[in-house]
C-alpha cells in the first residue's frame, strides 16, 4: 500500500496549483493524472490570459503551464502519469491503474479531486459522421498536435470556447464559414467575438444545426433559424459547404469520483450541472476530500488555479502545516483573487451560482466576508 499525506487527482491548472500550495507548506504530495503529459488544458491555450498581473494577465496559457510544471519539479512533487483513478472511499483509500496494466492502492490523509470537465455532445442527424468533433478536440489537434482538423469549419456555440477556438483555427489556416448560436445574443466576451468578427466570420444568432450532410464524412451542414420559443422556423434553412463541424456547446463537470466517494451534490445549471457541495475552503461534505477547478463548477482556467490554491492551502493546514491564523490569512488572499475574477457581467452570475452551493451546504456566509 502506497501512503501519502495529500493526493491530488488531476494534473491540470487546478490540480497543479493545489499540489504546489500544499508542497510549499511542507506537505508531501502525490499528483495523479490519466494522461501521458501533465498540464491539462493549459497547453492548448495559446491565447493570453485576462485579469490582473496576479491572474497571469498577458501570459499565454501554455507558458503558465510550463511555469506550473517547473514549480512542481522544483518542489519535488511526485507525479504519476498514465494512471487512472477508478475509485475513492470515505476513508481516503484510492484505487488506480498505472500504465493500463498495474493495479495500485493508495492511502491518503487528504484527497484533492481536480478532475476537470468533459465536452457536451449535441445529437442531430449526421452527428456521428467523421468530421463532427468537440471544439476542444479541434483545439488539441491544432495547438498540441499541429494538425488541421479541416479546411472549412462551422462552429456551433458562441461562448468563449467557440470564439477562441474559431480564432485559433483561423490562425492555423482554416476557413471558419460561420458561428451559429441558438440564443438570440452572443455568449462570449466582446474582446473575443470582436476579433473573429473583424476577421470576416459571420455569426448566426437564433440558429441551430439541423443536420450534418455527407455519405462517409461531413460535406456540408444545414442550419435553421429559431423563434422566441426555440422552435425551428420553416423556410429559414441554409446549407453551408463545410468539411468539419465543431461543437462548443458547453462542458459538464467530471464528478464520478466525488459521487463514488459519497460526496453530497446539488444541481446548478449555470455551473454545468451536478456539482459537489463544498465550503469556503473547498472541502466537500466528506471530511478530508476537497475539490477544485471545473469539478466544482465550470469556469475559466484562472479561477481553477485559484480554487486549486485554496484547496491546497486548506488540505495542508488541516494536516497541521499552517496555524489557524496562517490559514485564515492565506485563504483571505485567495478569496480576494477569486472575487476579482468573479466580478462584472459574466463573473457575477458565476459568483451567485457558487453562493447557492454554500447555501445548500448550510453555510450562510457572504462571499464578500469570506471567513
Task: Characterize the structure shown.
This protein is α/β, with parallel strands linked by helices. The protein is built from 9 helices and 19 strands. Helix 1 (13-24) runs parallel beside helix 7. The longest helix has 18 residues, at 301-318.
Return Rg in Å. 21 Å
Query: In sequence order, what are the helices and strands, one letter per element?
Result: EHEHEEEEEEHEHEHEEEEEEHEEEHHH
Main sheet: strands, sense, barrel:
7 strands, mixed
| Overall SS class | alpha/beta
Mean pLDDT comes to 89
Beta strand %? 25-35%
Number of helices: 9
- Give the termini separation: 37 Å
* Range of helix content: 25-40%
Residue windows where pLDDT falls under 50 for at least 5 positions: 362-371
For the secondary structure, the number of strands is 19
Molecular shape: elongated
Amino acid at each position: 500500500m502506497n501512503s501519502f499525506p495529500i493526493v491530488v487527482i488531476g494534473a491540470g491548472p487546478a490540480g497543479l496549483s493545489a499540489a504546489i500550495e500544499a508542497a510549499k507548506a511542507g506537505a508531501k504530495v502525490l499528483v495523479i493524472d490519466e494522461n501521458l503529459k501533465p498540464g491539462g488544458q493549459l497547453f492548448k491555450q495559446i491565447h493570453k490570459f485576462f485579469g490582473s498581473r496576479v491572474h497571469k494577465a498577458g501570459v499565454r496559457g501554455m507558458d503558465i503551464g510550463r511555469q506550473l510544471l517547473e514549480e512542481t519539479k522544483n518542489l519535488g512533487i511526485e507525479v504519476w502519469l498514465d494512471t487512472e483513478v477508478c475509485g475513492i472511499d470515505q476513508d481516503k483509500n484510492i484505487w488506480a491503474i498505472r500504465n493500463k496494466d498495474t493495479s495500485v492502492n493508495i492511502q491518503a490523509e487528504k484527497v484533492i479531486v481536480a478532475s476537470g470537465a468533459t465536452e457536451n455532445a449535441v445529437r442531430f442527424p449526421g452527428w456521428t459522421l467523421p468530421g463532427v468533433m468537440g471544439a476542444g478536440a479541434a483545439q488539441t489537434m491544432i495547438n498540441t498536435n499541429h494538425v488541421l482538423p479541416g479546411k472549412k469549419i462551422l462552429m456551433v456555440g458562441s461562448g468563449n470556447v467557440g470564439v477562441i477556438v474559431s480564432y485559433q483555427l483561423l490562425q492555423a489556416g482554416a476557413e471558419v464559414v460561420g458561428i451559429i448560436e441558438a440564443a438570440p445574443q452572443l455568449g462570449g466576451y466582446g474582446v473575443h467575438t470582436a476579433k473573429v468578427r473583424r476577421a470576416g466570420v459571420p455569426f448566426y444568432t437564433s440558429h441551430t444545426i439541423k443536420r450534418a450532410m455527407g455519405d462517409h464524412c461531413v460535406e456540408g451542414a444545414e442550419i435553421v433559424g429559431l423563434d422566441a420559443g426555440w422552435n425551428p422556423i420553416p423556410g429559414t434553412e441554409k446549407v453551408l459547404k463545410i468539411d468539419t463541424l465543431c461543437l462548443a456547446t458547453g462542458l459538464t463537470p467530471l464528478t464520478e469520483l466525488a459521487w463514488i466517494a459519497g460526496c453530497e451534490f446539488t444541481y446548478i445549471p449555470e455551473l454545468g450541472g451536478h456539482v459537489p457541495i463544498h465550503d469556503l475552503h473547498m472541502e466537500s461534505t466528506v471530511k478530508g476530500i476537497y475539490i477544485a477547478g471545473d469539478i466544482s463548477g465550470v469556469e475559466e482556467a484562472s479561477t481553477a488555479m485559484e480554487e486549486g490554491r485554496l484547496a491546497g492551502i486548506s488540505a495542508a493546514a488541516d494536516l497541521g502545516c499552517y496555524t489557524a491564523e496562517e490559514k485564515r490569512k492565506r485563504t483571505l488572499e485567495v478569496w480576494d483573487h477569486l472575487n476579482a475574477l468573479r466580478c462584472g457581467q459574466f463573473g457575477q452570475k458565476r459568483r451567485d451560482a457558487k453562493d447557492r452551493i454554500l447555501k445548500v451546504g448550510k453555510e450562510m456566509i457572504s462571499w464578500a466576508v469570506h471567513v
